[in-house]
Every structure is written in C-alpha cells, then in structure tokens.
Amino acid sequence: MDSMTLSCVKYAMAVVNRLWIGGLL
Question: What's the start-to-end Cα distance of the chain, in Å?
Fold first, then answer.
C-alpha cells in the first residue's frame, strides 16, 4: 500500500477504535 492509503487506514482504525471504546464505556 502507498502512504496515502496507509494513513487513511490508520485514521479509520483510530475512529472505529474510539467509537468502539466509547460504546463499551
């Protein structure tokens, strides 16, 4: 993957992680 795709994936994972943790808490 190129750096653009990689950064997008990292951002998406961070958002999902935050929503998931927020849902648990």
Answer: 34
pLDDT at 15: 96
Cα 14 to Cα 8: distance, rounded to the nearest angstrom: 10
Cβ contacts of 6 within 8 Å, gap of 6 or more? none
Cα 15 from Cα 12, distance rounded (Å):
5
Residue length of the chain: 25
Render pLDDT for 1-25 as a digit per residue (tens, 0 to 9).
Answer: 799 999 999 999 999 999 999 888 7
